[in-house]
Amino acid sequence: MRPMLATRGDRLPTSPEWLHEVKWDGIRLLVDSTPERGLRLWSRNENDVTAGYPELAGFGAGRDLLVDAEVVAFRDGIPTFAALAERMHVRNQRRLEVLARDNPVTLLVFDVLRLDGRDLTGLPLEERREILEGLELADVHWQVPAAYDDGEMLMQATEQQGLEGVVSKRRSSRYEYGARSRHWLKFPHRRRTSWVVGGWRPETGSRGRLGAVLVGLPSADGLVFMGRVGSGIAGRNGQALLELLAPLARTTTPFVAGMPKVDAVGSHWVEPSIVVDVESLGFSGQGRLRQPAFIGVRHDLAPDDLVEDPAEEDAE
DNA sequence: TGCGGCCGTTCAGCGGTACA
DNA sequence: TGTACCGCTGAACGGCCGCA
């Protein structure tokens, strides 16, 4: 039993047939509560993660209920994946108790799929939403976030508040387990920035094909490592980039000391002269690019152009 | 020809194990 | 005992292939 997935959208729908929700930066869960078995939390890949979130134990209060939700961890009032990452794989009971107290999660419930033995997945989203709001699920550790009619307003507001983006859903959509539906569209706020390539790594299982490029920010001492970029460089994109990098090969790293060993081992180094655009969801807790995707080479920029403040660099 | 599903790639972090 | 490595979990994206 896997949750229904959204397709990435290219244009925010403005028709009244759609409603819009905040795209939360967390982990998707199906939350199954029954009087017989109690509460079970299932991840997107059907793993039982109940033990990882003890503060959610009271959800459902023993009622027969199946909901679709996102578990998030707030830092400074904003859902932050880095904070949630500290919780994701902890199973040590004592450590879980400490984390549940110091770094608690919140369950954001946005759909109800079963209630008191009745399967609701065949109902339109609008009706499921009414039933969900009627349940009055509100607690320190769980809530039902609002849905909005005005998607553009929500898009602007989420960007200003540093939230991840917007999900638009067709009001008439039925719930399809495991399906990536075009009735649900996601619009993440991905930030485009420019970085200098200092190396590359071959694709796993091949020698010549590009698997990822290592990017950094120029400084007086060399490149400051910012992460590896693997998405978006498959196929012709990767081949073209590799042809640009090949003549720039060098035997020593252009990155300053402190680069993680796991990133350095097996990498090929190049003169830091190629600037590329990368889209990402910002930075991880360790200052690395989060979910970076290669966009293209910036032939109009040189590394010196990035010295001021690359975060302000915008490709538009 | 277009769409959907699957697969392979990247990222981050934790836990267990091996080794110095 | 501390460190390094591997394998697992979560996330997203792009390419390929089959089917309508």
Structural write-up:
It is a single chain. The chain has 316 residues and is of the alpha+beta class. The chain has two domains: 5-188, D-amino Acid Aminotransferase, Chain A, domain 1 (2-Layer Sandwich), CATH 3.30.470.30; 191-315, Beta Barrel (OB fold (Dihydrolipoamide Acetyltransferase, E2P)). It has six helices and 17 strands. The strands form three sheets. Strands 3, 4, 5, 6, 7, 8 and 9 form a seven-stranded mixed sheet that branches. Strands 12, 13, 14, 15, 16 and 17 form a six-stranded antiparallel sheet that branches. Strands 1-11-10-2 form a four-stranded mixed sheet. Strand 12 and strand 13 (210-219) form a beta hairpin. The chain is elongated. Belongs to the ATP-dependent DNA ligase family. Keywords: Ligase.
**Rg (C-alpha, Å):** 22 Å
Number of strands: 17
User: What's the total helix number?
Assistant: 6
Tell me the β content. 35-45%
Look at the helices and sheets and give the structural class: alpha+beta
CATH architecture classification of the largest domain = 2-Layer Sandwich
What is the CATH topology assignment of the largest domain? D-amino Acid Aminotransferase, Chain A, domain 1
How much helix, percentage-wise, in residues? 10-25%
State the CATH superfamily name of the largest domain. DNA ligase/mRNA capping enzyme
Taken together, the total number of domains comes to: 2
Uncertain ranges = 308-316
Form type: elongated
Name of the level-1 CATH class of the largest domain: Alpha Beta
Distance between the termini: 41 Å
Could you spell the SSE succession in H and E letters?
EEEEEEHHEEHEHEEEEEHEHEE
Largest sheet: 7 strands, mixed
Q: Which whole number gives the mean pLDDT? A: 78
GO molecular function: ATP binding; DNA ligase (ATP) activity
Enzyme class: ligase
InterPro entries: ATP-dep_DNA_ligase, DNA_ligase_ATP-dep_C, DNA_ligase_ATP-dep_cent, LigD_ligase_dom, NA-bd_OB-fold
Protein name: DNA ligase (ATP)
